[in-house]
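Retro notes - structure team

What went well: the batch runner handled both jobs without manual restarts.
What didn't: labels got mixed up in the shared folder, which is why I'm recording both outputs here explicitly, each with its sequence directly above its tokens.

Job 1
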Amino acid sequence: MLRRQLFYIQAAKLEKSLDSDDLRKTFWINIYNAYYLIISKESTDNTSIYNLKRIKIARSQLSLNDIEHGILRKFKMGFGYLTNPFCFTQYFFRKNNH
């Protein structure tokens, strides 16, 4: 049920809910950790689980690598190897200047 809700949530609604860097970081860290557990239990080949595009959020499919290197490291370093791969991530990368 939760996976379905994450996939069908509208990007604008998710953006509104995640209105600070702390909330965005917390969201993505929790998504990463939860899906790591799910994918590692479902997969027999743990060497490739990081590249599987099995994480569905706001009608986009992501891998653990996409989240770790493209989103979470962007918060830490100010950039990531994914500049804007999904239309909805612009909301998560934007700095909150309030």
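Job 2
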Amino acid sequence: MSSENFKTYLNSDHLDLIEGILNRAGFEEISPEYSSYAAFLVGRFERGTTSRAELAYSLQRHHGAIQTELSRRLPTRFHRYAVQGLPDAA
């Protein structure tokens, strides 16, 4: 029985891809989160996610951007009622 290794190894093009995804997401190399998000993307890449779109989407999900976008689309005039309850009918 042979053991198969499906790990994907990184080269300079792959690192450029990851750097481009982080830059497009608005992270600068001097930011404290940059290295942790870069490590997250490297891990995803090594596990087989090699598409730019899939890596960017997984970064958004990991970072929480999708939840933020959803909360921005909520109508603000109803947010008050979610906290306070509906007004009494007169």
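One thing worth noting from job 2: The radius of gyration is 20 Å.
We'll revisit the folder naming next retro.
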